[in-house]
Write a structure and sequence with these properties.
Layout (H helix, E strand, L loop, with lengths): L3 E2 L6 E2 L6 H12 L12 E6 L5 H12 L3 E6 H4 L7 H9 L4 E5 L3 H11 L8 E5 L5 H15 L13 E5 L4 H12 L3 E5 L8 H14 L4 E5 L2 H5 L4 E4 L11 H7 L7 H6 L5 E4 L11 H4 L6 H19 L2 E2 L5
Helix pairs in contact: 1-13, 2-13, 4-5, 6-7, 6-13, 7-8
Amino acid sequence: MTPAARAGARPALLDVEDLGNDGLDEVLALATSPGLPPVLAGAGVAMVFEKPSARTRNASEMAVVALGGHPVSMQAAEVGIDTRERAEDVARTLACYHRVLCARVFDHQVLVRMVDALAGAPDVVPVVNLLSDRAHPCQAVADLLTLRSALAPGDASPAALSGRRVAYVGDANNVCRSLAKVAVLAGMEVRVASPAGFQLSEESVSEIGRLASATGRGGTLVLTDDPRAAAAGADALYTDVWTSMGQEGEAERRRRAFAGYAVDGPLLAEAAPDAVVLHCLPAHRGEEISAEVLEGPSSVVWRQAAYRLDAMRGVLAWLLGVAPGGPR
């Protein structure tokens, strides 16, 4: 049996909450399906990038091609969101030509405004968050695919990662928030080690807690400022750059704040003997991760990068109403 298109596309994937328990399970199933229907045949997909992109752009464009569609990528200057045109007008215009609208933006509210502008249109044109200051849900789907393949190979059940432990060390940023959300939905124990001033906000902690409670799979969130405590016995270590795009002016201050938060050999030694290491890239060897760990046998970073394509296939198919396991 192969997935088939269901009636009724979904309006958006802006954050993990848009997936929920069932949606996440469906996206993971679709992402690993050997065959998906060409639900984008003859259709375009708009991709707006206010920020530079390597993995996201390549994965997204090739996922569109795999589903039969034609990707059209645009840089910030070509669109000029809220400079040349309001975000709402950009969304309405692109919806005239494309089946899906994807965007990588600085301000998450731009995506919210795009979704609101398209609400009530006769045809649903889903909006996909390719990264914002608040969330990176497509990366999080790829992260979960990577963790499942590394920690529970061959097990595609919703409970495959239940009870496993992932430690995120570093800046509790958009990547961290989205990772924590999908991981608690999968029933994992998520440990986040960040220095004061760079920890998860109370709002984010509440959001993650609500998702953990709703899923019923036993997912938990543990917060600490001690990287060694977070890494102790963990099944996976995860890190990201200390200075994200748009924060370059804070680079030196951040290097001082994150001293001691590198994922290196001594920290990896605190984890479980067969622990794996993830990084969403780009990586700065010698800062948030050592070269020996990034290139070492515990690293699944390149597998993680490869799963970005599968994740995007699953996300797009799910938004367009494809059902896992249904007849064509």
